[in-house]
Amino acid sequence: MSIDAAKIVATCRESFNKGCTRSYEQRKQLLESMLNFIKDHQQDMIDAMTKDLRKPRSEAMGMEISFAENEVIHALNHLKEWMKDEKTSKPMAMVGKDVYIKSEPVGVMLIIGAWNYPVQLILHPLIGAIMAGNTAVMKPSELSPATAAVFEKFLPKYLDKDCYTLVNGGIPETTALLAQRFDHILYTGSSPVAKIVMAAAAKHLTPVTLELGGKSPAFVDKDCNMYTVARRIAWGRFINSGQTCIAPDYVLLERETRDKFVEALKDAVKEFYGENPQDSKDFGRIINERHFKRVVSLLDSGKCVMGGQTDEKEKYVAPTVLVDVKPDDPVMTDEVFGPVLPIMTVSDVDEAVNFINSREKPLAMYVFSNKKQVVDSILNRTSSGGFTANDVLMHAAVDTLPFGGIGNSGMGGYHGKHSFDRFSHKRAVVIGDQSLESLLAIRYPPYSKKKESWFLWLMSKSRKSKAFPVLIYGALLCAIVGFLLKYCDVTKIY
Ligand code: NAD
Question: Measured by CB atoms within 10 angstroms of the end CB, which terminus of the chain is less buried, N or C?
Answer without folding.
Answer: N
